[in-house]
Design a protein that fits this description.
4-stranded antiparallel beta sheet, MerR family transcriptional regulator, membrane, 4 helices, Nuclear Transport Factor 2, Chain: A, 29% strand, transmembrane
C-alpha cells in the first residue's frame, strides 16, 4: 500500500508539473502571438502613414531656394536649346523666344539676321545636356551655370554628321523675376 501511495504521489506530482509546464508554454505562446499581431498592425499602420506622407511631400511646393534653382537651370537649358539649335525651320520662333532670355549682345551673336542664312539643309541640335551650379546661394542676383552637351551637326548636302562635346559657363542675372543670360564663355570644345 505504501508503494501504491508513493506511486500515485509521484504520478500526481509529475501530472502537476506537466500541466504547469504546459500552461507556461501556452501563456508564452499566446503572448508572443499577441505581440506579433500587434507588431504587424503597428508596421502596417506606419507603412501607410509613410506612404501618405510621401504623397503629401510630392504635392508640397518646393522651397523658395529650390524654385529659384529650377528657374535658372530651366533658363540655361532653354538658352542652349535656342542658341545651338540651328535649322531653317522655326528660326523666327526661336529668335522671338531668345529675346526674353538673352541680353541684346548675345541675341545679336546667335541671331544676327532676320532670316536663316546657313542653307536649307544645314542643321545643328544639342543633345545630352547636363547642368552644374558653381554655387547656389539664395537671393543672389548673378549665377554661373556650367553646361555640358553634345552638339550634333548634320549637312546632307555634304553627307556628313559631326558631334562636338561642348562645356560652357553661362552667366545669368536676375531682372525683375526672371533670369536673363548675359554672357557665355566656352570652356571646352572637343570633336567626338
Amino acid at each position: 500500500m505504501k508503494d501504491k501511495r508513493k506511486f500515485l504521489f509521484i504520478v500526481f506530482v509529475i501530472l502537476v508539473v506537466g500541466v504547469t509546464a504546459f500552461n507556461i508554454y501556452l501563456s508564452k505562446k499566446s503572448m508572443s502571438d499577441g505581440k506579433e499581431k500587434q507588431l504587424k498592425l503597428s508596421n502596417e499602420l506606419l507603412t501607410k502613414q509613410n506612404e501618405d506622407l510621401k504623397k503629401r511631400l510630392n504635392k508640397v511646393l518646393p522651397s523658395a531656394q529650390e524654385q529659384q534653382r529650377r528657374a535658372y537651370l530651366s533658363t540655361a537649358e532653354t538658352f542652349i536649346q535656342l542658341s545651338f539649335h540651328r535649322e531653317k525651320e522655326g528660326y523666327s520662333e526661336r529668335k522671338e523666344k531668345a529675346k526674353s532670355i538673352m541680353s541684346e549682345e548675345l541675341l545679336q551673336q546667335f541671331y544676327p539676321t532676320d532670316k536663316y542664312e546657313l542653307g536649307d539643309t544645314y542643321k545643328t541640335k544639342p543633345i545630352e545636356m547636363e547642368f552644374y551650379l558653381q554655387e547656389n546661394e539664395p537671393d543672389k542676383e548673378e549665377v554661373n551655370v556650367l553646361a555640358e552637351f553634345i552638339n550634333v551637326t548634320t549637312d546632307p548636302t555634304q553627307n556628313r554628321e559631326e558631334k562636338v562635346n561642348n562645356v560652357l559657363r553661362i552667366i545669368m542675372k536676375k531682372e525683375k523675376e526672371t533670369w536673363r543670360v548675359t554672357s557665355v564663355e566656352e570652356l571646352s570644345m572637343k570633336v567626338l
